[in-house]
Amino acid sequence: MIEDKNQQRTQLSDLGEFGLIDHLTKNFKIKQSSTVKGIGDDAAVLNFEDQKVVVTTDLLVEGVHFDLSYVPLKHLGYKAVVVNLSDVYAMNAKATQVTVSIAVSNRFPLEALEDLYAGIETAAKIYDIDVVGGDTTSSNTGLLISVTALGALSEDDVVYRNGAKPNDLLVVTGDVGAAYMGLQVLEREKEVYKVNPNNQPDLEPYTYIVERQLKPEARKDIKELLKGLDVKPTSMIDVSDGLSSEIIHLCKQSDVGCDLYENKLPLDPQVISVCEEFNIDSTTVALNGGEDYELLFTISQEDFMKIKGNPNFSIIGFMKESKEGMHLVTRADTRIPIKAQGWKNFND
Amino acid sequence: MIEDKNQQRTQLSDLGEFGLIDHLTKNFKIKQSSTVKGIGDDAAVLNFEDQKVVVTTDLLVEGVHFDLSYVPLKHLGYKAVVVNLSDVYAMNAKATQVTVSIAVSNRFPLEALEDLYAGIETAAKIYDIDVVGGDTTSSNTGLLISVTALGALSEDDVVYRNGAKPNDLLVVTGDVGAAYMGLQVLEREKEVYKVNPNNQPDLEPYTYIVERQLKPEARKDIKELLKGLDVKPTSMIDVSDGLSSEIIHLCKQSDVGCDLYENKLPLDPQVISVCEEFNIDSTTVALNGGEDYELLFTISQEDFMKIKGNPNFSIIGFMKESKEGMHLVTRADTRIPIKAQGWKNFND
Predict the structure, then answer these.
(1) Quick one: how far is CA A145 from the chain centroid?
(2) Residues A111-121 pLDDT 10s
(3) Edge-to-edge strand ranges of the sheet holding B313-321
(4) Where ATP is bound, by residue (chains A, B) (predicted)?
């Protein structure tokens, strides 16, 4: 919301498509041994030896998934990569490569795309992955980013959504609801800015939740963490659309039911206080907020002692027979059926 | 350009995102042995055993790459897959899987997306590949399709762009320039239609070139064909941006020059006659038209007898030392430097 009046502006048409790709990716280094050939041919060539390969893809669309009035392009590039890696980690795989395609209107100068790619490069560094391909093209309107992520794992390590059994424990990493409340704060500040553009937003009290929204992290660490504890989840999914929605996916695909305990939901203190400030129910936010990019998984009861008390994990419920349905057990000990809300893009 | 007044229209919001993906992909069958798990989890799981993997991605944007006033959605879905497979074949790999993501505005009814996916499904059937993932989201304006294609090959089979040597022969499959002239015909008919919407276009004399534009095919057959002839190209690329542009890529990446013979350029008779009709130079069209999705490759002179006279291939020139540059040798035996024109999207 703070404009730099001295921005350099280089027209994209000054470079042309090939010049643009070359320019944006020239600093990208290949680090993964599985990358035989990265950007620069008709396709990348990868060597996974006897490992299995996972592949996942996501689109981020301006005006639907992000609002450039408060999302810095560097953060956007970072986030576009991270949300895809999260899906790779949800298979219990190691992320290895991404391809990144963008469609962008002429209103963006080259410097804006450089920021976007700086974020992509930072994510690639931090998550130790290679950017091995992509496409850049013009669009008639806004910005769109399409990322495909690849990962590798040994066959024994694969964790699907469909392996949960009755009595398995339901576990979530980190905390939930923060990204959604970060979005509420940013949306509010945007409205304030519209009325008074000289008003500098004070985001200090909201640092954690704003960062969770603008610069989420994927749980690269969980695979190793669980391996070290000798725990293999029976099912797993990442929390992108909201906890409720993901629980429903696990239950439906595993053909089980579930009891989820409201008092076990991991909420950051900042989420609780901002929920009070906004007069929003924090449980609703935890269940339906989404964009947490935490991992939700189930483990056998036998593994309970291995993760009990571990600060990375919260045991939030347990699985039941399918016919018993999916319920939230509230603090008042009432049982409410779990419904997905998620991101209903097409209702916008 | 012919509107069906009785179209059924189902709003996308009636299904929601998950319902939409399920609905659109419910008929997709898994056929590749390398697909362990397709659509339905956080990521697809693939098993390439000891094969190398190639991955490539392309974006198609409404108003930039296609015009829905004359491109049927079914053809568009087909083409979106095929243009990516073309890149896989250009590595001398076998195409195995694709992911397909779409961003679409609410102005499209469900039936339109069903047509698009019918085209994707047809391409998957014909090219024997699996659709293993994707994403659907709303967009504020038009339609955008992002496809990532995967392929497999043994290490010995990989053909890069950078292996051409001086004296190698330059070979192209099929013929070139037809897709571009097909586009000219469709653009002209669109203008006629704008003036008189009752005027039914007669595309009969343009069948071949219009089909090359609307429903291009990728050269799945070339890998086996060359293997049967015991020929391994020294370098290869697919012709998407235009022959000139692709020749320049091969030369630059291989550090060689090239003489290209105007009288050897393979042109379909329909292209020649429509070029006359439009008063366009057919050589310019052959060199800069693009969207041919043929394969351009170089072979050692030793392999000359193996492909000489083969109707699938035209020997159009030969490679030289880098310092001799890249030239078109005209029918009048003058030498003109080769320049790329290609698709300059950002200049539009």
Answers:
(1) 14
(2) 999 999 999 99
(3) B235-238, B295-299, B169-173, B313-321, B256-261, B326-329, B335-337
(4) 117, 134-135, 161, 240
Distance spanning both ends of chain A, measured CA to CA: 24
- Taking an 8 Å cut-off on Cβ atoms, the answer to whether A52 and B49 are in contact is no
**What's the domain range around B133?**
12-157
Nearest partner of A94 among A132, A44, A48, A62, judged by Cα? A48
| Among candidate residues B157, B184, B217, the one where a domain is terminated | B157
How many structural domains compose chain B? 2
Is the residue at B6 inside a domain?
no
ipTM of the complex: 0.90
Tens-digit pLDDT profile for residues B12-35: 776 666 678 778 888 888 999 999
B90–A42 CB contact, under 8 Å: yes
Lowest mean pLDDT among A225-229, A264-268, B128-132, B193-197: B193-197
> How near does any CA of chain A get to the CA of B81, in Å?
15
- Residues of A whose CB is below 8 A from B144: 59, 103, 139, 144
How many Å lie between the alpha carbon of B301 and the closest alpha carbon of chain A?
24
* pLDDT the model gives residue B18: 60
Question: Do B335 and B187 share a structural domain?
Answer: yes
Burial of B115 (0-12, 13-18, 19+ CB in 10 A): middle
Say if residue B338 is in the same domain as residue B195: yes
